[in-house]
Design goal:
Layout (H helix, E strand, L loop, with lengths): L18 H18 L4 H21 L4 H8 L6 H24 L7 H11 L7 H11 L5 H8 L5 H9 L4 H43 L9
Organism: Schistosoma bovis (Blood fluke)
Protein name: Glycolipid transfer protein domain-containing protein
Pfam family, one: GLTP
Length: 222
């Protein structure tokens, strides 16, 4: 079974993070928010805007790595690419924090409680009162757990699910198989969500060190 987290873009050089792979990874944030609810367009549009800033800066500066982009913009009037990287990094920290909570959660825990807790631990410190209110309003609209799991798992592999459903001959067997499929899906989604968080976190920490080096991020923010 394929889940949302099954295909992670891989950096060829983990010490010199290339921009294109990072932007592919960032696109996954947009896709993730897209699975949550249409009202998450506020968050998705913000991420897409930052992706465009980084992409435009890399093209204009003719650079291929995150470090080179930051180094080239440090003394320029236009630092939009660096600011885009800063906010993408912060959004990744929010998503990673949520996924850690999610991967370790029990089936009676609410998605909205975990996502609000992650927001309070990460992004809220950067937002003013109005922005915090707007974000909290949107975050509370996340789908319930069973729907969320299905979007991250079964709907990513709908051909396999359709095949399973088509070969079920009886109602009782259908319900039993569908229940087992959902249980297996949840286990796989939780495991791969945790693996995704750990894998991406290492790259985000590398970017964070660069941002601190160039004076764009507080050194106390890990």
């Amino acid at each position: 079974m394929i889940t949302f987290f099954s295909n992670i873009p891989i950096f060829k050089d983990e010490k010199n993070l290339d921009i294109q792979t990072f932007l592919q990874l960032s696109k996954m944030i947009c896709d993730f928010f897209g699975l949550c609810d249409s009202k998450f367009s506020l968050l998705r549009n913000d991420v897409e805007g930052n992706i465009k800033k980084v992409s435009r800066a890399s093209t204009n500066l003719h650079v291929n790595t995150l470090y080179d982009l930051l180094a080239n913009e440090i003394n320029r009037d236009d630092s939009s690419g660096s600011i885009g990287l800063l906010w993408l990094k912060r959004t990744f920290q929010f998503l990673i924090c949520f996924l850690h909570y999610f991967a370790q959660s029990k089936n009676n825990e609410l998605i909205r409680d975990m996502i609000i807790r992650a927001y309070d631990k990460t992004l809220t410190r950067y937002h003013n009162k109005l922005m915090r209110h707007a974000f909290r309003f949107v975050l509370l609209i996340v789908p319930k757990r069973s729907v969320f799991i299905r979007k991250l798992g079964l709907e990513q592999d709908n051909c396999e699910l359709l095949f399973v459903l088509l070969i079920v001959p009886k109602r009782s067997v259908f319900i039993r198989k569908l229940g087992l499929e959902q249980d297996n899906c949840e286990l796989l989604v939780l495991r791969e969500a945790g693996q995704f968080a750990v894998s991406v976190e290492a790259h985000v920490q590398t970017l964070n060190r660069m941002l601190v080096l160039f004076g764009l991020e507080d050194p106390l923010i890990s």
